[in-house]
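Notes from the 1:1 (GR / supervisor)

We went over the backlog. Supervisor wanted to see one worked example end to end before approving the batch request, so GR pasted a single chain during the call. The sequence is below; no edits were made to it. Supervisor asked that the structure be written out right there so they could see what the output format looks like.
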Amino acid sequence: MRILFVFGVLSCLFLGCDRYRPSHEEIPDVPSQAQSYSLESLRLVERMIEQYPNEPAYKYKKGLMLSEKKDWIGAIDALKQALRYDSLNPRYRIALSKAHHAQGDYKFALQMIHKILPKLDNDFQALLLAGELFCRNKDYDNAVKHLNKALRLTPHEADVYYWKGVVALTRLDTAVAIRNLNQTLKLKPKHALAYNAFAEMYNRYEIYTIAIDFANKGLAYEALPELYFTKAEAFRLRRFAEDSARANYQKVYALNRKFYWASYHLGKYAYDIGKFEEAKKYFESALREESNLAYANYYLGMCLRFRGERESALKKFALAMKQDSKLFVASEAYWALSTELQQDRYARYEDSLRRVGLPPDTTRR
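Structure output shown during the call:
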């Protein structure tokens, strides 16, 4: 009896107690950096989930705890369970959206908050998230609409100006982009992604030296894969700087393999110098993130052919042809290898005839 009493007291202290109605609690939307959920706290929440399986608030708390630990798969699972009981709860949807955002699934992240956007007109963080997600999903009108709403609530937030600058860059409105990115750096001088946006802009205008300079300025504040990638692109496009490009692509690959173009270019560099095993590793990495890369499938097919895996190579050439009908090198490789395999099969067939003393089959010539 005493054990049950102590457990009940601890439960109330940690989760709040309103006649055992945890949905009445005030649960924080986002765990702050100062919070540190212990393993014991997580286990306590899991016990409460067992005790109250139909209460979504505990599942939501578990999702926040796992998000803080960057266990995104576990967080997504817990938050989805919470939404099964309260499908339009804004806090649950925003938390799940952020978890999918962290995983790079921007389309689903936007779907999570799209239904509740009319309820979020006074929620700055939600409006900023919506603006970013609309931008990442190439819905630029809605991105600007929600970023402007966020700006009216908090007019001195650097990230709002940053995303407005990104939208303007995408729309090729350079003057507006520069104005917003300069405002970003005025409000937050160490905003590394703003430096990256400037670097991307100068890459677009083929001013590679200044692009590299802006990337280096951003890297002085934060070693982001975006900055290394933009810097690598500048070296690659400038030509005669392959070693520098490769070194920066390798840093991207080490930090975040979701940058599949970095993996692809590393594979191409390795392929060009005959390191086919290394090239195969990079092409496979690129295709795990984005399967619809015709050139990656073609070069992977070539690597497999050099390994003697001709049937697998033929499938890769066929897939590359399907993905890009104008990729003639894949078509040539496919038909050359197909003919070679057919000739080998016929040679084996004739050899089998000779072994049993039968004459050659002249009808198949």
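Supervisor's comment: The chain is about 75% helix and 0% strand.
Batch request approved.
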